[in-house]
Design brief:
Elements (H helix, E strand, L loop, with lengths): L10 E4 L11 H9 L2 E4 L2 H10 L6 E3 L5 H13 L4 E4 L11 H10 L4 E4 L4 H7 L8 E5 L5 H11 L5 E6 L4 H12 L4 E6 L7 E6 H10 L6 E5 L9 H6 L3 H10 L4 H12 L3 H11 L2
Parallel strand pairs: 1-4, 1-5, 2-3, 2-4, 6-7
Antiparallel strand pairs: 7-10, 8-9, 8-10
Helix pairs in contact: 3-4, 6-7, 7-8, 10-11, 11-12
Amino acid sequence: MSEEINSKGMLYLSATPIGNLEDMTLRAIRILGEADLIAAEDTRHSRKLLAHFDIHTPLTSYHEHNKLAKGPELIEKILAGDTIVCISDAGLPGISDPGAHLAMLAIEAGITVSPLPGANAGLSALICSGLDTTSFTFYGFLPKTGKKRRELLESLSNRPETLILYEAPHHLKGTLSDLVKSLGGQRKAVAARELTKKFEEFNRTTLGEMLEYYSANEPKGEFVLIIEGCDGTEVSSEVQDDALSPVELVERLEAAGMGRKEAMREVAKKLGISRRDVYQALLDSNA
């Protein structure tokens, strides 16, 4: 027996397809049609989805940039008796989007919050990755600022569980470069793109080889990165670096998939010397 819409008002968090529209659940379609209002991350994007399933429930915009003002308004509507469904552009709301904030506000207000399960890019990529699924941590998009990004990547280097990250195509090469520097180029990794779509692809390799591949092949589509956890046998890069010469450090970074110019710049920064000194050391080594 299907559930009835709560007469006191409630909040549903509904998954939407990450690519293939057939992944929309029958229950989600029904509840979306019965609700009083749908709070969507991008109303233009969501209108196409709703039109496909002949859903005519009113839409309102709820996203990262208006959540502090719009969230309390939505809570007031629910307290007045409305049932609202929160959706993101793709996958589960609350995962790398402001749906989590709305759920927190609703719970604080004593409102019933219920999931409408469905597609999720991170878990879909994980189960097809071939890497360990018994223990994993989802990080979503890495911080954009340099300091926060470096601190997080440093903390991830020794984590034993499988890591799940999201990345946009235009940032992928930079992120892979940072991952190689922090985790090493030999760490197993999977890049999943266009999940559930016609050109779905899983690139199962190492971080170093992945960086090399996407440096030569322009990334297209949204990516999920699944990265092998630390197995406990890796030696801290700081300990290794103390015993290595500038030439050896450059060679190690190049072996991990980094270009020579970038490798020289990183070695100079790490050792506190000029790039000219690194370049001269390379020339001397080939003399």
